[in-house]
Amino acid sequence: MTGNSKRIVVGFDGSPSSVAALRWALAEGRALAATVTAVEVCPPDTAFLPATSMSLHPRGTVPHPGAGPLARIAEQVADEAGARLRVRRVSGRTGKALAETAEGADLIVIGAHHHAARLATGMGVFAMDCVRHARCPVAVIPERT
């Protein structure tokens, strides 16, 4: 990692593996004096289009960046670690959205949804998409069992 202002971006979806990744990133951020940002990648908001049904918005309301239960979980993990954390919510469906959000970061951290033994045989689609589009190193942290 280079530069005066180091940045670590963590993909966070509230799963045990993303909590493990966030804990790892917070420890790494503390050691490197880096800013850590937890990013939740959410499905894009739906909009009404002409000639389509006028159904309700799938979430009932439009989500607000940094709001919601996942942001509170991420902030609780940071409080337990005694670390500062930024939280962001971005619209997208793939690891590419996380990689684009991390533009200019020094490191992206994601949790492995596969057991550590399976990581040798491959990663999930989201992780591969993130690795493929990232412009910085990507750390894939297995959930501790």
Automatic annotation (TrEMBL):
InterPro entries: Rossmann-like_a/b/a_fold, Universal_stress_UspA, UspA
Domain UspA: 6-142
Top-rank taxon, per record: Bacteria
Molecular function per GO: ATP binding
Keywords: ATP-binding, Nucleotide-binding
CDD domains the record matches: USP-like
Family: Belongs to the universal stress protein A family.
Protein name according to UniProt: Universal stress protein
Protein source organism: Actinokineospora fastidiosa
